[in-house]
Amino acid sequence: MINQPGSMHSMDEEVDEDGSTASGVSNFSCGREFAVINDIQETLNLSNTDGYDFVVFPIFHPRNKREFSSGPASNRLGPVTRSALLLSPCEWSTNIGRLSEWIDCDSSVEHLRKNSISALQQELSFCAHIGIQSVIISMKGFNCANLASTLLQYGLSGSFSIGIEIPILAPKSTVIDDSDIKELNTWRWWHQLRTMCNYSKKLSIALVLTADLPSNVDVSRWIGEIVKVLIIPTSIFILNSKGYPVLPKSHQELVQSLFKLDIYLIVRGSKRHSVADKGMRVYYQYLHYLWRKQPTLDPVETFARGYEDYLQWPLQPLMDNLESLTYEIFEKDPTKYKEYQEAVKRALIDRDSITDDDNVTETLRTQTVMVVGAGRGPLVCAVLAASNESNIPVKVYAVEKNPNAVATLQCLKRDVWFDDDVTVIASDMRDFKPTELADIIVSELLGSFGDNELSPECLDGAQCYLRSDGISIPSSYTSFLAPVSYHKAYSELKTAPIDPAKPFDSPFETPYVVRMHNHILLSTPQPLFIFSHPNRDLSIDNSRYGSLSFTVSFSGVIHGFAGYFESVLYRDVFISIRPETHSPGMFSWFPILFPLKEPTFVEAGSVVTVHFWRRVTKSKVWYEWCLSEPLPSTIHNAGGRSYWIGL
User: Fold this and answer.
1) What pairs with residue 365 in β-bridges?
2) Could you give phi then psi for residue 55, rounded to 5 degrees?
3) What mean pLDDT is predicted for residues 94-114?
4) For position 78, what pLDDT does the model report?
5) Is the distance from CB of 106 to CB of 141 less than 8 angstroms?
6) Cα-based distances in Å from 314 to 514, 593, 608
7) Enzyme catalytic residues
8) Rounded mean pLDDT of 621-631?
9) What separation in angstroms does the CA of 106 have from each of 63, 69, 114, 116, 265?
10) Fewer CB atoms inside 10 A, N or C side of the chain?
11) How many CB atoms lie within 10 A of CB 603?
12) What is the Cα 592 distance to its own chain's centre?
């Protein structure tokens, strides 16, 4: 159930004592970090009293700098850290551990490097022992080979997740040369580590807000990464006109943009702003308020809730008979059928009065409309509604191959359409042999890439029963591609199960329909393939080849290509899932992802060239794709070896 935000109080208004409003809030989680803890149980109780949902605490005391090879501390007696008996297993697992700040596995000083590696091993082992579920370790800079090696050996094979603490802007103390982009750009620190760790799903980002923020481009890059935690120091809060601590406007916008990633918030530091009887609670309440300020979800976001970044194979409606639930989901779309109805109405009006070669106007009263792929009847309803609006009578043929859907159509004919001229035809549209020709053919065979559910092949087979001057709805559709940075999808595919009958890398040779959420496009989508109907070519060929070159807006990693479509239903009636022109409220289609086997790093301003093929045989259709710039890649899905669509 989605809780919709209600009316908000202004930023200057005081938040309720418990941080709540009448509208409620979902998925908000905010913890408090403690640099030092004397009594861990008392600290948990204090934090809970202030409203915080969890605590971040040091696994080892910050001053307990152990020495493993030599030095005075190597002979220290007594326990190295607190007892595992101080908390219950549930309490350990519902809070977050912080690994020692002084650990620097890639220090240029040999004994510090070796000592840090041994300390990290020890702390990771203790985390596994107490059953903690999440830990945070800070990253010191771009050089991280030893950190990556130690995490792979001792941390990423464990049961807990590891948050890599990275400042959004590099501290001046780490930057020796202002021209060293690798040290200045902290996103590059993250990319270096996740690549060395082979995109482990146990790794995520704990991003630290800094007083100064980088450019908007650098900030937006983090939206495409797996940021799970946002750490907010109390030192960056300022006082508003009523004396309450708030974030500067630029920081507010950043925090709200990251809310869509379902992040955990962590307040770091001591109380720096005196608000009567509030204590540390004032920071929690303010962040809670920011969370509730999020805009109301639109119909697409509401429908997609829970589907974000979930990879699905595209439908194969020619090979498979769709389930009733699938039809029902599509039929709830508030936009698609309204646009179809408008397109049919305009087509009926245009065909109602046709001028022949002698300039004689012939009024055609009853129009024959064939709905091919009628499903459970929504397009038939749209045609009948268009007929009523235009006052032009129609004779409708509802053609459907799915015998289960045909049963529903026949019931609708008996119970709903009994006064209308509707004929239900149980047949594949390509095999249907009508006794009359159609004035208009209507279909909804489009896929997320336009042609990927074989609309061209189906409509080419059906156009034989369309009049020579007849109208096809849709009349055309265009596919679009854009390079995408999509860590989450790539890491999922790295661990995807493999069909033993297919190549070992088949997950990366398969397109996926996905509600892209935790991603970022590296360039604007460009048109690729266009199909028009009716197709009057003497020799119809639906195979295609195209190459596109993109100039990358900012440095990043290409994990694949995002696919979209636009379709002209009739004249200026149009539907689209391309981000720039997306039809408001339409959710019948999510974008499609064509992954790359190897992530490709690109610098800002560089050119990315992709080659794309649509291959067609008598029995199947498939796509192939590859890069040629900035580096060549293998041709994915050559010969349809991993994925194809059956005719």
Assistant:
1) none
2) -125, 145
3) 94
4) 65
5) yes
6) 9, 10, 26
7) 444, 453
8) 97
9) 20, 17, 9, 8, 28
10) N
11) 11
12) 11
